[in-house]
C-alpha cells in the first residue's frame, strides 16, 4: 500500500481564506478543511488595505490546527490573487501595509502610462489585459504621488510571495503571479527593462523568478516554535496565483500539455471574478488578442493561460452587501431562489463596465447602467440578480466565441471550477447561453491544484496529465446540458449591443 503524504494549502480568496489539508496516497487525493477565516480589505483613512497582520496570524493558526490534527505535514503552499504586492526594505522590514487593488489610487494611471509608452507597445511586450489595477499602474501611482516607499524599498514581492517571505524569510517571485504585473515579458520569461525605464520604475526591486512547484525554503524557526511543530517544514511555491492553481485542477484528459493542436475545452474559474480561457503552449500576442483585451498569464510546466478577466460574482456579492447594510440581509440561497423565480431575459448589463469595479451601492449602479442604455431597471432583488447571472452567461459566450476565433478551434466543453461551480443557476445559464455542456467542479480547485503541485514538486507526480487524472478520480463533477437555445440567441443579439472589450 502506497504511503499517504500530507500537504497543507493556505488559500486566500476574496471573501475568505482557508487552510486545506490534502492527503495523497499516490492515486487519489483526500481534502479536509482545517481552518476557514474571513478575508476582506480594511479601510484606514482614505486607503483600502490588506489586513495582513491578521491574515498571517490566521495562517499560523491553520498550521497549528493541522499539527494538532496529528497530520505529518510534508510541505506547505500559499496562493492568493494577483496584482497586489508588498515592499520590503533594509533589515527585512515590511514597508507599510499592502494596498488592496480596489483602492482608487490607480484612477487615471492607464492614461498616465500611455503618455510615457504607447498602449500598443505595452501590450506587445507583456501580452497582458489592460486593467486599471495591474501592478504596474499601482507602482506608477506611488511614483506619481511622490511616495518615499519606492526610494527605500529593496524588494517588491507579490502578495503570495510576501506571505511566503513571512513564513520562510526567502524573497522570490513565483512566475504565475508575477505574470499578472504587466511588468513581465511572457516570451522571454524575464522582467521588462523597457517598461521599467519608460515609467521610471526601479528595476532593481524586482526579485528573482522561480517556477511553480519550486522549493521556496523552510519555515522560520520562530514560526515552527509558535505553531508547535516538532520539526521545520518545507514551503513549496505552488502556482501562487489562485487562478493558475485552479486551472491545474481542471479534471480533463484532453489537450496534452505542449501539443500544438488547438484546445477543444476551456476553463472558467468562477468566484468573485470569472476567469475564462484556454491553456496554450505559448503566449498568443497579436492584433486580435489586443483588440479584445485578452491576457497571457503564466501556467505550469511551460504553459500559458490565454484568458479574459470578467467581473464575476462580485456583482452579486456587492449587491448582497448593499442590501444587508440597509437591513435586508438575504442569504445566497435565498437570492438564487428569487432569481430563478424571476422572469427571464429582462434588462442586461455589460458585467465589465468600469462603474461596477469598486465597492459601493451595486444595485444603484446596475439601475444607472440600465437607464443609460435605455432599458427598464430590474424591479426586485431577484430580478436584479437574474440580470447579473444572465449577463455573465452571455459574456462567457462572447469570450468563448472570440477565443475560438483567436485559436482557430471549436470549444466543445466548458469546465467550471471554484466556488462558483456550486451556483447551479449560473452553471445552467452558462450551458444554455454558450450552447455547450458545462462540467462543474471541483469546488476547491485552487486548493487542490496548490496541493498537487506541491506533490509534483516533491516528485510524487510526474506530469500535468497524471495530476489531472488524479483530480478526475478524486472529485465528482456535475454536468449541465444546454437548453432553450433560441431564447438565448435572441438575448445575445441585445447583449452584443451593450458589451465592450
Give an overview of the whole structure:
It is a single chain. The chain has 501 residues and is α+β, with helices and mostly antiparallel strands. The chain folds into three domains: 5-237, Nucleotidyltransferase, domain 5, CATH 3.30.420; 252-311 and 394-486, ATPase, nucleotide binding domain (Nucleotidyltransferase, domain 5, 2-Layer Sandwich), CATH 3.30.420; 314-389, no CATH class. It has 19 helices and 22 strands. The strands form six sheets. Strands 18-19-17-16-20-21-22 form a seven-stranded mixed sheet, with helices on both faces. It has a six-stranded mixed sheet with strand order 3-2-1-6-15-14, sandwiched between helices. α16 (424-434) links the parallel β20 and β21 (438-440). The longest helix is centred in the C-terminal third of the chain and has 27 residues, at 381-407. The radius of gyration is 22 Å and the shape is globular.
Amino acid at each position: 500500500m502506497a504511503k499517504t503524504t500530507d500537504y497543507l494549502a493556505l488559500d486566500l480568496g476574496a471573501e475568505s481564506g482557508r487552510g486545506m489539508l490534502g492527503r495523497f496516497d499516490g492515486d487519489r487525493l483526500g481534502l479536509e478543511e482545517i481552518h476557514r477565516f474571513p478575508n476582506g480589505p480594511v479601510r484606514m483613512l482614505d486607503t483600502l488595505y490588506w489586513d495582513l497582520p491578521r491574515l498571517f496570524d490566521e495562517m499560523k493558526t491553520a498550521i497549528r490546527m493541522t499539527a494538532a490534527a496529528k497530520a505529518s505535514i510534508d510541505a506547505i503552499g500559499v496562493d492568493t490573487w494577483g496584482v497586489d504586492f508588498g515592499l520590503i526594505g533594509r533589515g527585512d522590514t515590511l514597508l507599510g501595509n499592502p494596498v488592496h487593488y480596489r483602492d482608487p489610487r490607480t484612477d487615471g494611471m492607464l492614461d498616465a502610462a500611455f503618455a510615457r509608452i504607447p498602449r500598443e507597445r505595452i501590450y506587445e511586450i507583456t501580452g497582458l489585459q489592460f486593467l486599471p489595477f495591474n501592478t504596474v499602474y499601482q507602482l506608477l501611482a506611488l511614483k506619481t504621488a511622490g511616495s518615499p516607499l519606492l526610494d527605500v524599498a529593496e524588494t517588491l514581492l507579490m502578495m503570495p510571495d510576501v506571505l511566503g517571505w513571512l513564513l520562510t524569510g526567502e524573497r522570490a517571485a513565483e512566475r504565475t503571479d508575477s505574470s499578472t504585473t504587466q511588468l513581465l515579458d511572457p516570451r522571454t520569461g524575464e522582467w521588462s527593462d523597457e517598461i521599467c525605464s519608460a515609467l521610471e520604475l526601479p528595476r532593481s526591486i524586482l526579485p528573482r523568478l522561480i517556477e511553480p512547484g519550486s522549493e521556496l525554503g523552510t519555515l522560520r524557526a520562530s514560526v515552527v516554535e509558535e505553531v508547535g511543530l516538532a520539526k521545520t517544514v518545507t514551503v513549496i511555491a505552488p502556482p501562487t496565483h489562485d487562478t493558475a492553481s485552479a486551472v491545474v485542477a481542471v479534471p480533463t484528459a484532453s489537450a496534452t500539455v505542449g501539443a500544438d493542436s488547438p484546445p477543444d475545452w476551456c476553463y472558467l474559474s468562477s468566484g468573485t471574478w470569472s476567469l475564462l480561457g484556454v491553456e496554450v503552449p505559448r503566449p498568443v500576442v497579436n492584433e486580435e488578442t489586443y483588440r479584445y483585451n485578452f491576457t497571457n498569464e503564466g501556467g505550469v510546466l511551460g504553459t500559458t493561460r490565454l484568458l479574459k478577466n470578467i467581473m464575476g460574482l462580485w456583482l452579486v456579492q456587492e449587491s448582497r452587501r448593499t442590501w444587508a447594510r440597509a437591513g435586508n440581509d438575504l442569504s445566497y440561497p435565498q437570492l438564487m431562489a428569487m432569481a430563478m423565480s424571476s422572469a427571464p431575459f429582462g434588462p442586461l448589463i455589460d458585467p465589465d463596465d468600469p462603474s461596477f469595479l469598486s465597492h459601493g451601492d451595486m444595485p444603484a449602479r446596475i439601475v444607472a447602467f440600465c437607464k443609460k442604455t435605455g432599458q427598464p431597471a430590474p424591479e426586485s432583488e431577484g430580478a436584479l440578480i437574474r440580470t447579473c447571472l444572465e449577463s455573465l452567461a452571455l459574456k462567457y459566450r462572447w469570450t468563448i466565441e472570440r477565443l475560438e476565433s483567436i485559436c482557430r478551434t471549436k470549444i466543445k466543453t466548458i469546465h467550471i471550477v471554484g466556488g462558483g461551480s456550486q451556483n447551479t443557476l449560473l452553471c445552467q445559464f452558462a450551458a444554455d447561453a454558450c450552447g455547450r455542456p458545462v462540467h462543474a467542479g471541483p469546488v476547491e480547485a485552487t486548493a487542490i491544484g496548490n496541493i498537487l503541485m506541491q506533490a509534483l514538486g516533491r516528485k510524487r507526480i510526474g506530469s500535468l496529465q497524471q495530476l489531472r487524472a488524479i483530480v478526475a478520480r478524486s472529485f465528482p463533477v456535475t454536468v449541465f446540458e444546454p437548453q432553450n437555445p433560441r431564447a438565448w440567441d435572441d438575448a445575445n443579439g441585445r447583449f452584443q449591443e451593450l458589451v465592450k472589450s
